[in-house]
Amino acid sequence: MKNWIILFSFLVATHVVSAQRTAYHFPPEKLFNQGKEMFLQQNYTGAQDFLSHYIAESNDTQLQEEAEYMIAAAAYYRNTPDNGEVLKEFLDTHPESVHRHQVHFLIGSGHFNKKEWQQAKFRFDQTNIDYLTPREQEDYSFRNAYTNLQLNHKDEATRLFGLLSQNSKTYRDAADFYLGYIEYTNGNYNTAVQRFQRLKDHPEYREDVAFYTAQGTFFDGKPDEAIRQAESFTQNYPNSEHIGEMYRILGNSNYRLGRVSRALPYYEKYLASTEKPLRGDAYFLGVAYFEAQRYNEAIRMFQQTTGERDELTQNAQLHLGLAYLKLGQKQQAQMAFEAAGRDNFDPKVRETALFNYALLAHETNFSVFSESITLFENFLREYPNSPYAEQVNDILAETFLTTNNYEAALSAINRIAKPGRRVLEAKQMILFQLGAQEFINGNMEQAIRLFDQTIQLGNYDAKARNNAYYWRGESHYRKGNYQAAANDFRQFTQNASAADENYALGWYNLGYALFKQRQYQTAVNAFRQYISAETNKSKSELADAYNRIGDSYYYNRSFAEAERFYAQATQISPSAGDYAAYQKAFVMGLQHNYQGKIEALDELMRRYPNSTYYDDALYEKSRALTMAGRENEAIAVLQKLVTDFPNSLLASQAGVQLGQLYYNTGNHQQSIAAYKNVITRFAGSDDARTALISLETVYNDMNDIQSYINYANTLPGGRKITVSRQDSLTYLAAENIYMKGKRNEAQTALQKYLQTYPNGAYGSDANYHLGMIANENGNKQQALSYFRKVIDANSAKYLDNVLLFAAQEEFANKNYEQALADYTKMANAARNAANRQTGQLGVVRTQSLLNRYREAAQAASALLENSNLSPETATEVRYLRAKAYLQLNETDKAVADLQAIAKDTRSAYGAEAQFILADTYYRWKSYDKAEAQAKDFMQKGTSHQYWMARALIVLSDTYIAKGDTFQARQYLESLQANYKGGEADIQEMIRERLNKLQ
Fold it and tell me: Does residue 68 form part of some domain?
């Protein structure tokens, strides 16, 4: 019997092992029962095998459903890849099955294992716990509780964990742990610690319990106990992932207990464990470093505290400012105080920050957008009873005196109901500075208006008032009001001390204003005063003053004195002595010293081969030779002038003189050729008319009047060439009406003249006057059409005026090609240096606008060789040349010009140059130079705020490139808060960069 049992057991075992081969020998009921037993014994593989064969051989639908459930459940317990699909397929097939709750539970458990919390909760919610086995009920309760905890459904999680804590042996400890955790997350730290205490020795939870207990005690406001528990944790679990947090608790708790020296080493260990410390702890550590006088480390921590707009950031910014001050970094300190004062989370912090900001703005004179004035006003309005109020009042007055944004300052002063003397003193200086700004920008009317206000305000700032006289005189002078200019320069020199920087120039300018009024003797006295007052004996104005004294004596026919002063001018400035040399030679001629004049002119041409007076020298030499009876030599000189200087204003006169000399020496044919050359090249001019009259004399002397008549008939206007002809009479009558100021009648008469004599000898004169009438009537286009005819006729008499009008009008109408042609002709043919300069400047401007950068740069260089350029013109020309060099990729040359321009940020050119330099250095990746340039610009200040904003954006880009994102954000936020301009590009650039820095 015993052997049979052993044999039976062996057979059963063998059957279990090889069920697949032998199962079909069993009847269906036996297959089901055997499969179910294996399922209950957790032999899920065997169960699936038997039950699958049962389903294939049985027709019992009820048991088949039971078998299908066990097969699906076995797939879950075996963790087959498709177990979830198998379970769902069972539900789809048997939606009302008694096992549906168990299947939902198993599907939910699958999601639970994969941490798919929402899907798990959905299945658990479909499950009725009453249909589960006791073991399944425990598993279900824990998994459902944990799932709800992960989904932050704390109330449901607490209920389920509470039931497990009371009723489950398997999950009691886990339930207690998570109940403690929920209390911890709800801020019920004392309750949480009580829960954790039961598990403090549990091998699975003791580390986490120790961690949460220490943290909960810390959060519960018990720093002493937290220190004890955290120290214990660091000793017991030195390699825990929570070790950094324990060091933070130790640092924070010691700091709160006032043990700063003990807090520091713990905080530093905390820092070593994290790349980004918590903001509050970074702040505490910053304060600890500050108290330990470790200011650089303090700054690093305070920087990590900022970012959010809250009270913590405001406090951190205040401490940043204090730390920067300790290191002498006043500009950074000022920005930090400004940022702290921008918000009002803590009014006391704001008050302190604003006051410190005010002190620094006053001390450093650094307020980019004059935001300090606004802040000072806000301070006095918000804190009228502040202990700092009186100091801020004084600082505000002084800030008005030092600000570079004068318009904002003036607006602020005008808001003060009862300004005191110091504020009025500031106002007077500001009015003067605004006037100077308008003068620099070429707005003379506005400059005069502001200088008037400066003078009318009284004598609060005597220097500003007297300087207003000087610069108002300059403004009047440039408008051509020489009498008003002389009055102002006289007033200035009477009030100014000899130490005043413009004292000597005041006399110089007074001399010019008198000279322009032909008050030569008083002009001489003023120029002598200048010579006496000028301490820089190499100044170009000194030689010029001697020249003007010479001119004054010349006009008063004191030739010997004139010659003496011309000689002194040459000695003082040999390189610019061509004018003096020319005038000296001219005076010799007036004294009948023709040989001396000839020698002086030869010396001038030898020493100054490129002089603008070279053609004048040739002409005057020919006259001196003629007066000395050396006509053949005079002919050779005139021939050189006509050949070498065909476009000279003297070419037509030289041609007439040449014709006369040829006639005098009996060379009639050469005389005729010379006269005809003048008539052809300078048709319509007075010299052409003179040449035609003289030509008649030559032909008459040759007894060949018919040839003269034949030639005259080929000219425009036929033979009507004598002074007595009808067109002359008609024109003179019309001109007489014009001179009497009867514009409408004159216009009709001049138009009738041109209709009657379309090729009349006075066509240029008539067209010029008609153009002037049209311009006076505001019809610039009609005026331009008349002046074009004068230009085409090449009438030297009016050429300067009409070229200037035409060039400016074409330029204003953006007809740059035609404007360039007019400016070019002006630069070559103008009678005086001022008009030639205007032409040259116009060439530079138009070449720049036409994108002809090489030509623009060359024209600019040629113009800059002129030593008599006004400072504002020289600045503009350098600016245009720099822009051209940038386009030509000749950056080094551009930088040289930009550096020269950038010295004066009062002009738009200087402000833009500062920005371009900073931007150029940034693009070169010379970040230190870019930073220095932008800060230099900030220190100088400017009223051209757009370029300042652009420079600050470059500065922020520079800090980003250097990895200092904190400073980059500081500047961008300050710019965003203080820039008042409405340009969309500035705001977009700020937003774009701030978004990237978040």
Answer: yes
φ/ψ region of 229 (left if φ > 0, alpha if ψ in -120 to 50, else beta) reads alpha
Residues 937, 951: contact at Cβ < 8 Å? yes
Is 790 a member of any domain? no
Section 147-168 average pLDDT: 91
Angle at the Cα of 282 from the Cα atoms of 246 and 966, rounded to 5 degrees: 145
Burial of 97 per CB tally in 10 Å (0-12, 13-18, 19+)? middle
Q: What is the pLDDT of residues 6-47, one digit of tens each?
A: 333 333 443 444 444 444 457 888 889 999 999 999 999 999
Residue 585 is which amino acid?
A
Q: Minimal CA–CA distance to 941: which of 369, 468, 421, 448? A: 369
Residue ending a domain, choose from 67, 88, 109: 88
The Cα–Cα gap between 276 and 435 comes to 54
Residues 991, 995: Cα–Cα separation, whole Å: 6
Question: Distance between CA atoms of 933 and 939, rounded to whole angstroms?
Answer: 10
The answer to whether position 920 is within a domain reads: yes
Structure tokens at 829: 């043919």
Q: Domain count of the chain?
A: 2
Q: What is the spatial distance between Cα 714 and Cα 55, in angstroms, rounded to a whole number? A: 130
For residue 921, what is the domain's CATH number? 1.25.40.10
- Ordered DSSP codes for 704-760: -HHHHHHHHHHSTTTT--STTSHHHHHHHHHHHHHHTT-HHHHHHHHHHHHHH-TT-
585, 620 in Cβ contact below 8 A?
yes
For residues 789 and 562, give the distance between their C-alpha atoms in angstroms, rounded to a whole number: 41
| CB 300, CB 319: distance < 8 Å | no
For position 898, what pLDDT does the model report? Answer: 92
Q: Report how far residue 292's alpha carbon sits from residue 513's, in angstroms, rounded to the nearest whole number.
A: 69
- What pLDDT band is residue 907 in, cutting at 50, 70 and 90? confident
Q: Which amino acid is at 722?
A: T
User: For the segment 548-587, what is each residue's pLDDT rounded down to a tens digit?
Assistant: 888 888 788 887 787 788 788 777 777 657 777 777 787 7
End-of-domain residue from the set 71, 88, 105: 88
DSSP string, 870-891: -HHHHHHHHHHHHHHHHHTT-H
Phi, psi of 99 (to 5 degrees): -95, 5
Q: How far is Cα 254 from Cα 597, in angstroms, rounded to an integer?
A: 100
Look up residue 975 and give its two tokens: 């710019």
How far apart (Å, rounded) are the C-alpha atoms in residues 236 and 117?
34
Distance of CA 40 to the CA centre of its chain: 81
Confidence class of residue 841 from pLDDT cuts 50, 70 and 90? very high
Confirm if 93 and 68 have CB atoms less than 8 A apart.
Answer: yes
Q: Is 701 contained in some domain? A: no
Pair 955, 930: CB distance under 8 Å: yes
How many angstroms separate the CA atoms of 26 and 8, rounded? 16
Both tokens of residue 679? 């008539």
Host domain of residue 979:
905-998
